[in-house]
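Troubleshooting entry. Yesterday's outputs looked truncated, so today I'm pasting the complete records for two proteins to confirm everything comes through intact. If either block looks cut off, that's the bug. Protein one:
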Amino acid sequence: MAERIRHLRVTVAASVVALLLATAIGRLTGGDVAALGVATGAALVTASYVLTTVAVAWADTIAPKLVLPVGLGMYVFKFSLFGVLFLAVTDAEWAGRVPMAVGICVGVAAWIASQTWWTVRASRAPLDTPGLSSEASELSS
């Protein structure tokens, strides 16, 4: 399974850096509530992506046919949970809800950018790189 989640070190690190920077900017521009909102949004996105990545990687180690149902199940679960959370935040009229939305955008952008960077970098690795399948090495011969 470790092979399937190699990118997590890069994506989580980038997400934490983005979270810290966005939280600092939120604190400077909107105070403690904005900082908490931004941090919450970015942390939710990071946790969501990590949870899905690990679940899908686990499913792939058990049986590749489980990847689609596990992935879809994770999305239904996460977005249902997010829906309940967002309704609660909206009903409470929490002042940090707009900064939380900004934090979500920051988290998504950091994750997508870092995973894209990692994927492009990994796809340029020589075919005899440890960790690539033997099929890929055979194709190059």
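Protein two, checking that the full record survives here as well:
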Amino acid sequence: MDLVVGARRVIVAMTATTADGEPKVVPACTYPLTARAAADVVVTELAVFRLRDGALVLTELLEGATLEQVRAVTAAPFAVALG
């Protein structure tokens, strides 16, 4: 926890879904938090999201992934800013 609270940038690397196919990128955490609003970047096997002004923004699609695939497995609302 101390590492996250004191970090300048926190990058979360995870799969987009659980083993059962449920979305992991969700609107609200249901597990105990290490630190509130600590993540800056979330990277999955499909995409890269950045947190900007408290909002989730899709900034990159990884090779072979489509926007439709990401939308299908992401429960949290997000904006799209692909560059």
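Both blocks look complete. Sanity check on protein two: The two ends are 33 Å apart (CA to CA).
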